[in-house]
């Protein structure tokens, strides 16, 4: 019929580490191995968790002792990647957060488009999603290999462009301030989750559109921010 307009596409974008999957064990071990391999004291687990979500080189630079140079960081990044992927090759798969799979499936069934914006490399991102049978649920997957990392909004905008969704009809879900700052820079509403790697008080300072403590509450938070699909 003439004069009818289609409803706008609704897009839900997930961070991975600390949001969809509990990857801190893999990340901490790989980062500590990278530092030890180059004669540096390994960073504490708490310090490593604080930089999860940043691009790998940026994360290493933030943790590295004063006086190290970019060439050191590149070599440490190579050890990190080798250690991380050796664990996955050996059969150690990062577990999904409690309720994550059910939430993704419910959003997909309701008609929301789903995307990922993560600081992981592509190999790690695809491997985790394939391991848990989720990769087919997502229409766009953007990662640390696709350009400027968080909190730069490039990655999130690339997901929206690929999905064909407007910023006002998109929501970003993440567990770190990097996710929330990225969303704000892209004019996208955000949902902070409190089960990840940044403290609730730190997340609250970034004024997310909603904050949830359980994956079971994600669907209603999405609906409240961008409406039904």
Defining traits:
229 residues, six-stranded parallel beta sheet, 10 helices, alpha/beta
Q: Label the structural class.
A: alpha/beta
Distance between the termini: 22 Å
Could you give the order of the helices and strands? EHHHHHEHEHEHEHEH
Low-confidence stretches: none
Main sheet attributes: strand count, strand direction, barrel closure: 6 strands, parallel
Radius of gyration: 18 Å
DSSP strand (E) fraction? 5-15%
Extended strand count = 6
Please state the overall shape, judged from the principal axes of the Cα atoms.
globular
Average of per-residue pLDDT values: 93
Helix content: 40-55%
Strand order of the largest sheet: 3-2-1-4-5-6
Descriptive report:
- The structure is a single chain.
- By secondary structure, this protein is an alpha/beta fold.
- It has helices at residues 24-37, 45-50, 56-63, 70-89, 100-109, 122-131, 154-163, 177-185, 200-204, 218-226; strands at residues 11-14, 113-117, 140-142, 170-174, 190-193, 210-212.
- A six-stranded parallel beta sheet has the order 3-2-1-4-5-6, with helices on both faces.
- The longest helix is centred in the middle third of the chain and has 20 residues, at 70-89.
- It starts with 10 loop residues before the first strand and ends with a helix.
- 47% of the residues are buried.
